[in-house]
Amino acid sequence: MFALCAISLSPHCCLSDLTSCSPRLPKEGETIHGHNFFIGFGGKGANQCVQAARLGAKTAMVAKVGNDSFGDSYIQNFKDNGVYTGKHDLETASSSQIRACGCLHAGENAIVIVAGANMMLNKEELQDALAAITSAKVLVCQLEISPQMSLRALRMAQENKVTTIFNPAPAIPDLDPDFYRLSDVFCCNESEAELLTGSSVNNVEEARCASRELLRRGCGAVIITLGAQGCVVLEAPESTSKHVPTTPVSAVDTTGAGDSFIGALAYYVAHYPAMRLEEVARRAGQVAAVSVQSMGAQSSYPHKRDLGAELF
Ligand SMILES: Nc1ncnc2c1ncn2[C@@H]1O[C@H](COP(=O)(O)OP(=O)(O)OP(=O)(O)O)[C@@H](O)[C@H]1O
Ligand SMILES: *[C@@H]1O[C@H](CO)[C@@H](O)[C@H](O)[C@H]1NC(C)=O
Ligand SMILES: *[C@@H]1O[C@H](CO)[C@@H](O)[C@H](O)[C@H]1NC(C)=O
């Protein structure tokens, strides 16, 4: 019997980043020379799953990849990271998620997303994953699959007493109110909190306000991440949020820091169910702080062996 601790649900997972570095972006119709090109593995669900796995969680991915070389290499990437993929459904008619990124010297990204197999995970396929979901301790969901499928998965988890972590990303303004009620932990960043509450979220005070508003909508707890300022944590039925600062580090590349945080959050919630959420968030912040100190998303995620014993 495969004992699962954390599951990440997201067919968007299978996002291959094709990155070419050039001094500037090409203009329409123009061809310019780049000085570097690499293929990376990205996608929120996959990033979160890989980070949880690297900390030692048994993870499984419910996802869909294209029946092509990108899909194959993505499955291999999961295997290399110890993520269980089970039998995979390959979508014949579509291509994998391929994201072409042009990275500018200033560190800005221009991202083009070519939709592939991701939105095609259907009810029947999700039902096939029921056993995996119900035997997990934690289910992590994002909005990379259709909201209806995410809600269905969260319901499956809640009915089976599986702790749910919901990350409303990429954010949509008119989020179905059921998402709040189905989230044991609702974790988002500043811009997502802003979009969902309609109020600006640029500092700790504003994040505290936003966390109260989101909690009021029915979540068990709310975490709003604030980059170098750490995060704000508010748990029901409390009304006073806690600001959890992070150790300041000099960031090299913050890409995927939020996903590292959520993957680590899933790991700690699964492995230390009695730990206070504030402490869970503090440790997840320490893990994410390591991820901002080198380039890339998954390529920057630490393994358990890279981290101090005080985090375990
Ligand atoms: N400069 C930094 N120094 C220390 N920790 C950081 C820094 N940037 C991010 N972190 C850690 O990572 C967590 C998540 O970062 P952030 O709030 O920027 O997420 P995000 O906006 O979703 O990230 P991204 O979109 O860049 O992947 C923070 O709560 C913090 O713990
Ligand atoms: C994947 O594509 C190959 C052709 O490239 C085809 O032979 C194979 O049947 C496809 N697999 C599935 C599961 O559709
Ligand atoms: C929050 O996350 C989204 C991805 O969902 C990202 O586009 C956005 O830049 C992030 N916001 C901040 C303030 O980092």
UniProtKB/TrEMBL annotation:
Residues 1-16 form the signal peptide. Requires a divalent cation, most likely magnesium in vivo, as an electrophilic catalyst to aid phosphoryl group transfer. It is the chelate of the metal and the nucleotide that is the actual substrate. Activated by a monovalent cation that binds near, but not in, the active site. The most likely occupant of the site in vivo is potassium. Ion binding induces a conformational change that may alter substrate affinity. Its cofactor is Mg(2+). Its main location: cytoplasm. Keywords: ATP-binding, Carbohydrate metabolism, Cytoplasm, Kinase, Magnesium, Metal-binding, Nucleotide-binding, Nucleus, Potassium, Signal, Transferase. GO terms for molecular function: ATP binding; metal ion binding; ribokinase activity. Belongs to the carbohydrate kinase PfkB family. Ribokinase subfamily. Catalyzes the phosphorylation of ribose at O-5 in a reaction requiring ATP and magnesium. The resulting D-ribose-5-phosphate can then be used either for sythesis of nucleotides, histidine, and tryptophan, or as a component of the pentose phosphate pathway. This is Ribokinase. It comes from Hippocampus comes (Tiger tail seahorse). The gene is RBKS.
